[in-house]
Amino acid sequence: MDEGTELNSVLADGLFFRCDPGGKRLISDPGPLGRLLGVAGEALKDDLGGALGKDAPKAYAEFFAAAASSSGEMKSILLPYRHPDRGMRWFALRLALDPEVPGSALVFLRDETVFRESMLKLAEAQSRDIENSARLQAAVLMEGERHELAGLEYQTTTIPSKLVDGDFLDVLRLSGDSVDFLLGDVMGKGMNAAIVGAMIKFSFIRALSSSLFAAPRLPDPAAICRSVDAALVGRLFERQSFATLTYARYEESSRALRFVDCGHTSIIHFSRKTGECWKVKGGNMPLGFMKGQSYRSFLLPIERGDWFLLYTDGLSECYNRYGEAFGEDRVARILKTYADLSPAELSGTLLRLGFAYSAAGFNDDVSLICVKDRSMPEPDDRERAFELSLGPSFSEAMEKAGELLASDLDAWVPELSVETRSAILLALHEALSNILKHGLDGADGVCEATWRMRGELLSAEFVYAGPDYEWSQVPSSPLASFAESGYGMFILDEAMDSLVVSQDLHGRKRLVLCRRLGDEDKKGGRT
Amino acid sequence: MAPISNPPGVGVFRPTLRKIDVLNSEAFHASLIAAMEGCSRLVLDLSEVQFIDSSGLGKIISGLRAFREKGGEMRLCGVQAPVRVLFSMVRLSDIVGIDEDVDGATARLTGASPGLGSAR
To answer: In whole angstroms, what is the distance from residue A276 CA to residue A296 CA?
Structure first.
């Protein structure tokens, strides 16, 4: 008979017996209990405690004493018992005084040995798993080199939870003027999640090194994600696992963050100029959700004094005792409040406040990358900010905006080709039309417009208060169906490299359009 | 809105608008549909138009579709640089012929030699 069968048999045969309330004398037939304990039944008659309680006499006596002084509720205890033939056993005893039979206690005894040993083995295995995955996480997943980059200060922090859940993080310096940040979170917990995290992280490093070998120019983060997807998604499917991640590159020359967001928590961008935090999202699904998804990178201009914050949901989804999540808005409010701190101080503050908020500490890993731009201020001669009234005077406002942008482009990039200049002016027109038509729902409104040139990057920001509009829905080709509408988003997508919509804590929307103006955009340049 | 001239067998519609955008695209569309009445071949001459937005583009495509459904044939010409950027962006030449000038477009529509105008 194997252990499992025996356990079932014992469980089925768990026996009741009667004894005196002190557990000293057996009242029931001693035969079944004697067989279970491996002793002669008669020996139990007058010395039940001496036999059943022999290996834990103090606990045995206290158990019966507590039961005798109770007001009738059931008591239970797990009692060790060294069987003469079968070694150490563990018996669960449940006892209730029987009011119908004064001077008598009713006891149910069950052999819990196999169950208890299974639980101990499981706990031991889990402990090993946690220990190993925590070790793996500390050694591999969270290792990020420190890099010095003029004008940029950052802090990476991670707090592994009791159950390691596969956060991974890295900071890579791959060129003279950029730093790459990778932060992800694998679905699930324990060693499997840690292994998947390691697989993803090393796939990124392998994809980067292969790309750099093939072409000296740093590949776009979207291209890296495509390589990782091709190499890894099949294996993630096999493991029934996936990961959310943000892969972001800060480019010093253009003062912008170029990022891919695979279903991760929002990037929180604190804009020193507006004094607001913006929740920024990209447009991809988690890695491992589907094969061969089309990865897109987005651009977010970063100015002096700005912050961007990457974090895992262990922070935003820790819960207080009322079951309320910490939430992205709270993370953003803390960043806004403490924007004058250093990245290390802000990391500490976020962790302290998150921990204080949560009812039982962090249940998941919490990982943070806090980055502050401490660069020298840019001369503002390549920047324009003004307010546009979009309402009855829409036509004049559009006209004025178009003229201003045209004159700024002529001044900032005098060698710009007619084609690129026209495409950018068209994109401005489409952006403002869409804000009026969809963003403001046709109602009067004000739009704060800013555009600037940083290095080769032209960016234009439009801030307005209005209902939600799905800016990321780009029709594939409205022309194919001879459609009358749908060209606005298509044009924006074609004319600009990136379109990002974010929202602040007051619900205001910010549309950011970016286009890198390279040699191919100059007169006589490659088209 | 737009003068209509009539070379033999072909209608020519030349909007005199500098811009065709969200503010006037409906009026432009009405004029285009009117120009299509009574002819089966039409040249849309955009030589005076410096700017077209997505709304104006949608009206051109809508007119083109309506005209074709009636068995008509239309070509575009006189496209100015900023407008050419838009047409190139959406690859308009995939669905409609675009010529340098009215002569070229007319020649294409009548099957004659295009002369100096060339198709794109």
So the answer is: 26
Nearest to B62 among A418, A426, A484 (CB): A484
**Domain assignment of residue A85, given as a range:** 3-111
Residue A111 CB coordination number (10 Å): 23
Number of domains in chain B: 1
Say yes or no: B73 contacts chain A, CB-CB below 8 A: no
Which residues 6+ apart lie within 8 Å of A68 measured at CB? Answer: A21, A22, A97, A105
Residue A347 forms part of a structural domain: yes
**What is the extent of the structural domain holding B63?**
4-110
Question: Chain A to chain B, count of Cβ pairs less than 8 Å apart?
Answer: 71
Contact (CB<8Å) B54/A487: yes
Are A99 and A186 in a shared domain? no
- Per-residue pLDDT of chain A in tens (527 residues, 90 and over written 9): 344 333 333 444 578 889 998 999 998 888 888 988 888 888 888 899 999 999 999 999 999 988 878 776 778 888 999 999 888 888 989 888 877 778 888 888 888 887 777 667 766 666 666 666 666 666 656 655 666 676 889 999 888 776 666 889 999 888 888 999 999 999 887 788 888 998 999 999 999 888 877 777 889 999 999 999 999 999 998 888 999 999 999 998 889 999 999 999 999 999 998 899 999 999 999 999 988 899 999 999 999 999 999 999 999 999 988 889 999 999 999 999 999 999 999 999 999 899 889 877 787 889 999 999 988 777 777 999 999 887 777 888 888 999 999 999 999 999 999 999 999 999 999 999 888 877 776 677 889 999 999 999 999 999 998 877 777 666 666 777 777 888 888 899 999 999 999 999 999 999 999 999 998 888 776 44
Under an 8 A CB cutoff, do A494 and B89 touch?
yes
Cβ distance B58 to A487 less than 8 Å, yes or no, reads yes
Amino acid (one-letter) located at A210: S
Q: What is the ipTM of this complex?
A: 0.85
Query: Any idea what the CATH number is for the domain that residue A343 is in?
Result: 3.60.40.10
Query: How far is residue A403's CA from residue A428's CA, in Å, rounded to a whole number?
Result: 11
A369 and A385 in a single domain? The answer is no
- Give B23→chain A minimum CA distance, Å: 8
Is residue A124, in this structure, part of any structural domain at all? no
Instruction: Based on the fold, state whether residues A353 and A399 are members of the same structural domain.
Output: no
* Rg, chain B, Cα only: 13
Contacts of B29 in chain A (CB under 8 A): none
| Total number of domains constituting chain A | 3
Q: What chain B residue is nearest to A399 in terms of C-alpha separation?
A: B19
CATH number for A428: 3.30.565.10
Please check whether residue A147 lies inside any domain of the structure: yes
Whether the CB-CB separation of A59 and A79 falls below 8 Å is answered with yes
